[in-house]
């Protein structure tokens, strides 16, 4: 569960990073790197280049995370979401495994057919002179 592995500060920072980098990730071409919307002109060395808006947003998210974690039913919601994500991951893994097995089966059949064709060609080459001379 997120609330047992991450502090409210970690979670708030994650949200600010997502907001800051979203436009870069959407328009990314290859491995392009750049400044996000909250670090564009951040010359504040004390806060590692974050703008005032970025720092303000971090504080807002910090308050929201703390209040959400204390809300009634928050633990149950988090458990339900984690269970749904776990199920989705298992389904996706199962689907990928089946697709790989199907691909391997098709490849095996293709290899068998290729070997049969090669053997037929070898037989034709071996028998062709005999058939022509007869």
| Total count of helical runs of at least 4 residues | 4
- Can you give the helix content as a percent range? over 70%
Strand content: under 5%
Order of helices and strands: HHHH
Radius of gyration (Å): 30 Å
Structural class assignment:
mainly alpha
Low-confidence stretches: none
In one word, what is the shape? elongated
Q: Mean pLDDT across all residues, rounded? A: 76
Description:
The chain has helices at 2-5, 8-26, 52-70, 74-133. It has 134 residues and is mainly α. It has one domain (2-133). The N and C termini lie far apart (81 Å).
Question: What descriptive keywords fit this protein?
Answer:
134 residues; mainly alpha; 4 helices; 0% strand
Short note summarizing the structure:
The chain is an all-alpha fold. It has 4 helices and no strands. It has one domain (about 1-134).
């Amino acid at each position: 569960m997120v609330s047992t592995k991450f502090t409210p500060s970690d979670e708030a920072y994650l949200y600010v990073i997502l907001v800051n980098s979203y436009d870069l990730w959407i328009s990314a071409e290859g491995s392009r790197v750049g400044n996000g919307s909250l670090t564009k002109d951040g010359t504040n060395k004390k806060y590692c280049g974050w703008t005032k808006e970025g720092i303000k947003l971090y504080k807002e998210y910090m308050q929201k995370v703390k209040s959400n974690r204390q809300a009634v039913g928050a633990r149950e919601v988090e458990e339900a979401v984690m269970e749904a994500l776990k199920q989705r991951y298992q389904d996706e893994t199962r689907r990928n495994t089946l697709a790989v097995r199907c691909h391997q089966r098709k490849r095996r059949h293709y290899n068998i057919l290729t070997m049969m064709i090669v053997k037929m060609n070898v037989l034709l080459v071996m028998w062709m002179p005999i058939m022509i001379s007869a």
